[in-house]
Amino acid sequence: MKINLTKSRLTNNEVVFGIALQQYRSTEIPRLLAAVGFDYLFIDSEHGGFSLETVQDLVVASNQSGITPFVRVGEMLYSHVTRVLDVGAQGIIFPRVECAVRLREAISWMKYPPHGTRGFGFMAPQLDYKQYSMPEIMEQLNAQTMVIVQFETALSIERCDELLSVPGIDVAMVGPTDLSISLGVPGEFDHPKILEAIDVFVAACERHGVVPGIHCRDCNMAMPWLQRGMRFLGCGSEHGMLLAKARDTMAELRTGMSELTSASIRG
After folding, report:
1. What are phi and psi of 69, to 5 degrees?
2. Three-state secondary-structure class, residue 45
3. What are the C-alpha distances in Å from 170 to residues 93, 207, 210?
4. Confidence band (pLDDT; 50, 70, 90) for 6?
5. What region does 252 belong to: left with phi over 0, alpha with psi -120 to 50, or beta?
6. Using CA of residue 238, residue 241, residue 243, residue 245, what is the dihedral sign?
7. Where would I find the H helices in the chain?
8. Among 48, 86, 192, 195, fewest CB within 10 Å belongs to which?
9. Domains of the chain
10. CA–CA dist 176, 225 (Å, integer)
């Protein structure tokens, strides 16, 4: 059965790096990201327009390539959670979490009894088409499936200890964009309000034995958070990286053309 490599690395106190998939539906993208060394990706079903069939294709490609596939669900609904787990996702990201009661219930949907209330279901590729007993499957999938909770509002920061006290959370991840909006400083990611709130968050994660994480837009924004204790570090999106590289390449070509033209004129 599939091993959650990201969970294994976090258990070994390593730092893991990931990226969001939000726009492109090609299964070559997980293969490319795995080849360059990303540990995980998350398929964004909150802001992206992916169908369940596309999610399944991306998850299967990820599992085959050795990059851990998570899915960020749009909201806490049993059907949203269990269906993406059944097609092979190795974890769920719950966005905008603010209520411990709802979070406890949502986590229960991710685990088979006796640890939760998930109905029995999975796809054969998760088992590499091998045969296992029902108890073996339940035990393994319970152990390998990760719970990732997003803190994106001032209220979630205020309730850090209450939320992180809910059993079963593997990673807590800051969403800095929505958090900055909630704190009244939209897009000011180095504002003292943001830095103070995230420091409070990291300290709470340490108290409760939860891995702290954050998802940033680019490397310049992401790297300082390594020094502030983040071990689950997301950086950018597949379409953002393509756009940034395309801009850089075009700028280099135009610069080269300008220099060539200038040299011809001088000659």
Report:
1. -95, 120
2. coil
3. 10, 13, 6
4. very high
5. alpha
6. negative
7. 5-11, 28-36, 52-65, 78-86, 100-108, 134-144, 154-158, 160-164, 176-182, 192-208, 219-222, 224-227, 238-266
8. 192
9. 5-237 (3.20.20.60)
10. 12
Position 267 scores a pLDDT of: 64
Contact criterion met (CB below 8 Å) for 173 and 93: yes
Q: CA-CA distance, 85 to 70, in Å (whole number)?
A: 9
Residue 261 banded pLDDT, cuts 50, 70, 90: confident
Ordered DSSP codes for 129-159: T----HHHHHHHHHHH-EEEEEE-SHHHHHT
Query: Does residue 123 have a pLDDT over 90?
Result: no
Q: Report if pTM > 0.90.
A: yes
Residue 208 in tokens = 């409760």
Give CA–CA dist 65/58, Å, rounded. Answer: 11
**pLDDT at position 1, please?**
77
Decide: residue 45, CB within 10 A, 0-12 exposed, 13-18 middle, 19+ buried. buried
Per-residue b/e over 94-125, b at no fewer than 16 CB within 10 Å? bbbbbbeeebeebbbbbbbeebbebeeebeee
